[in-house]
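Below is a typical protein record.
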Amino acid sequence: MTAPLPDQEFENLLDIHARLELPEGKRAELIGGEIVISPTPTIFHNEIYARLQRWLNQGVPEDWFVTNTTTVFLPATEERYIPDLVVYKSGATSSPDDWELNADHVLLVAEITSPSTRDRDLTVKVKGYARSNVPVYLLVDPHDGDGSTTVYSHPDGKGLYRDEHRAMFGEKLTLPEPLDLSLDTALFSKK
């Protein structure tokens, strides 16, 4: 914990915080005596995440975990991505202090696009996950017309997935091995 700021400095910080003009989709928090600016997921983005997580938790074995905000280390590129959702098996970590998963332990990553991430999710991240042999990349794109979901599978280790299947929201899509689950993408439609 940081030491509290002197009263005048804290008042100045509060004043700056109150006057900040942030772009749409950004938020400013006062954390530890600092102003931290970060993107704010939309409510619809969070609803898609919650529905997907609930659905996956019902379909995967008990020793698999479905989580968010986990950093995935991609050994092929040495990059570190933070996908919206990750599925991995028990035993992927060896310490209670681990905060990063190696791509070798990841079964599925999912990204839910937002206007600020869509281009990266559709290009850079597809290649990065494929290079590091993440078995399944699920891309939920509410910004593609009325919405679409694409499942990429069978990575070639060179930046491409051999299989790519896209379904508009409302259609069914199969998540291949190691998940082998049928997904009704109506789950993601605006209700």
